[in-house]
Fold these 3 entries.
Entry 1:
Amino acid sequence: MDLILWRHAEAFELRELCDDLDRALTPKGERQAQRMADWLNRQLPAGTRVLASPARRAQQTAAALDRRVKTVPALAPDGTVDGLLAAARWPDAREPVLVIGHQPTLGLAAGYLMTGLAQPWTLRKGAFIWLRARDREGVTQVVLHASLGVDLL
């Protein structure tokens, strides 16, 4: 199974009178999301399942893909690694899964899958990490397939 963890692009800062879920992408964030979506669309198989946080900034990032997206409450900013992995059906999903969400959950999930420990890895805004689960002699191994920051596009 392939699991792609994509952090939402740059968003406006949280204001005192603003709900965190309503924060939108900045103009720079909109450009970041589109550049990364263009790259991902060239790489992702057609049957990739796309899951996104209900937060506006994640929804806007997902919209740049121009694919069908399922909104998953467990991927909200206060989500957990367990909730993310359950939503993605890791490691048993038959199709690749792209998750668009938030720090620290994405980084914790990547760290956990790669090392077995919930380490606080950091994904920059707009960046992704692409992990692949494979079976070797009855043991599930996790392989880093790709990782890319939007600033390298």
Entry 2:
Amino acid sequence: MKKKEQQRNQVVETILAHRSIRKYSNKSVSNEDFDTIIRSTQAAPSWVNGQHVTIISIQDSERRKKMAELAGNQKHIIEAPVFLVFCADFHRIKVACEMEGIEFKAAVNPDLLLVGTVDVGIALGNAITAAESLGLGTVPIGGIRRSPLEYIELLNLPEYVIPVSGLCIGYPSEIPDFVPRLPKEAIYHEEKYKENIHEEIEKFNHIHREATKGRQSGGSTWTQRMANFYKDPFYINDGYKDVGKMLKQQGFRKGD
């Protein structure tokens, strides 16, 4: 029993120690560790065991340079020895339907997008925890959705497959300070959503400002940073404008 408790605590400690790593050494990831990460990702639960996730590994340096450019010139994609692209994949479901002589009609249901992205999120979390438990660093890359059509072409994604997030994996060359999280009272609710969370957020504003002094966020409050980020619909002024077009191109069209 003590051994099980120790193992469980090690997992929790790995999760709680997470940092987003954006600077990597040139040390490569061993094949054994990489295989462990992929198998851990596959172990994630999924809706009806549909396993609606595909992972594409990009280790070629020139391809990583191009993908870094398309993701908003994020140089850590180039520095990290491994870059994974996580896709929501219903192409396999279409193939399964064809094998059974059944027409695949579910793509008109917008809930399918939620199913796919939730499955990707769970799998991505498994990959992060597995990698960090092995002493590696990670950072998710949502910026791949800045240029989803180009990513689809580069990755040769078939219909019903969409790129959702990237993940850099490698050995950290620098460990950043911990970025504070909202207080538990602001994100945890019992029975129903709290009517007023202003007090908890206001307290966090002071913590966030102090913790981020001298960083890229410039000692701003959390509400200032979030409000400025989300002030434009669909981030029109900061990319991400082709997501709707990408969904239609890949077969996720709204039904009548």
Entry 3:
Amino acid sequence: MTRVFGDPVDVLLGGDGRPVRFVWRGRRHTVRRVLEHWVTTRDWWHEQDPAVEAGGEREFWRVEATPDREIGVYELRHDTAAGTWRLSRVWD
């Protein structure tokens, strides 16, 4: 089951530019592995939500991560123009 969020997260990147850790709702999650990575360059999200500024790229990282012993799958979204990170989805 997928849950959709949009919560801001603090992300720590490794030397290769991949997320290695993120903090969500005060809990630190360690990335175990990257499952997928993609970049969207079209402004399709602007067409869907006019409140979102046009331009820029959105970079997505689907990662396997754990705050404790339980591993989950998380989708992180980086808005390159604004420099912000959000947690988009969580898989149970």
